[in-house]
Amino acid sequence: xxxxxxxxxxxxxxxxxxxxxxxxxxxxxxxxxxxxxxxxxxxxxxxxxxxxxxxxxxxxxxxxxxxxxxxxxxxxxxxxxxxxxxxxxxxxxxxxxxxxxxxxxxxxxxxxxxxxxxxxxxxxxxxxxxxxxxxxxxxxxxxxxxxxxxxxxxxxxxxxxxxxxxxxxxxxxxxxxxxxxxxxxxxxxxxxxxxxxxxxxxxxxxxxxxxxxxxxxxxxxxxxxxxxxxxxxxxxxxxxxxxxxxxxxxxxxxxxxxxxxxxxxxxxxxxxxxxxxxxxxxxxxxxxxxxxxxxxxxxxxxxxxxxxxxxxxxxxxxxxxxxxxxxxxxxxxxxxxxxxxxxxxxxxxxxxxxxxxxxxxxxxxxxxxxxxxxxxxxxxxxxxxxxxxxxxxxxxxxxxxxxx
Length: 404
What we know:
Layout: H1 3-15, E1 18-22, H2 25-32, E2 39-44, H3 53-67, E3 71-76, H4 98-105, H5 108-112, E4 126-129, H6 131-134, H7 139-146, H8 151-154, H9 158-165, H10 173-188, E5 192-196, H11 200-214, E6 219-223, H12 250-258, H13 265-272, H14 277-288, H15 293-309, H16 311-326, E7 335-339, H17 345-351, H18 358-366, E8 370-372, E9 389-393, E10 397-403
Parallel strand pairs: 2-3, 2-5, 3-4, 5-6, 7-10
Antiparallel strand pairs: 1-6, 8-9, 9-10
């Protein structure tokens, strides 16, 4: 990488998908120009089985930093997930059990590996669990951590203030979360931590603790959240069960992107794709000049699918969408369910109230009323699901089935 290319990449790191940098962007820039490898991490709690595009914004930033030669650490908060992050919550978050965390963690590395290169042997990306050190802390350690903060500081969190005013419960264990997440910075001896704006309080707690324990200044980089710029609502949320997962099929990823609000198109290009910023600026000009948002969103969907599945699958997903949705063969809000390989189709339709009984299912099959979207008829009452498939049931009902 020549000096010009390196400087361009540094400038992209400093500006793309960035909300705010603590203490200043100048300090961050100074570190990036120091020519020493930095220890940079991002934490994620396994509160669901999938990683979505909202998280991917941070991993794309980590990838840019990795390409600049820095040490990247993906920290999975398996221990903190059992406490429950109170960030941006109107009520206490549900605490997870060890088994729930283990289940959710199953495919995390595989999904994140669609962005970060875990196979890089020269500068390996680390994947660590914070239970490695947090499970070893004793009560004396916790008291020592807590002594670095006042109750007033903890109550400065907007959601805590609101809950107190609304007389909603505020549990003592919720104060532990920023202490635990803050201790991660000490254990990792971090130079930089990256996270969404909803994690600002927790990340700054780590900055305070690292200064107290190691007299070291950590840079905190907050990234933009994927939100509807008109309503302010999150476009991706694990706790709400919404969003586009990195483990989804190309067709599903493409279709869900097309369902995003038009006003979010430009931000999604910036935060969810690798498209150069200059090219995105041209797309923005096209939009303001009156271009059809649907056509630009089609480009967005193609770029996102390409990033996770490659060019060929992106082309297939686009063709499927044009054929199935734009030509009105199936509705855009088609119901999608996940199931295990080998599950009986009869049982799936019964469970989802798409047939009234087993007899009703058999009559549907016998009458040729059940088929794949490509026109292939389902002819066996004992048919099993062996792959992702989109079905037409009777004249009006459609169902998309995806394997877990």
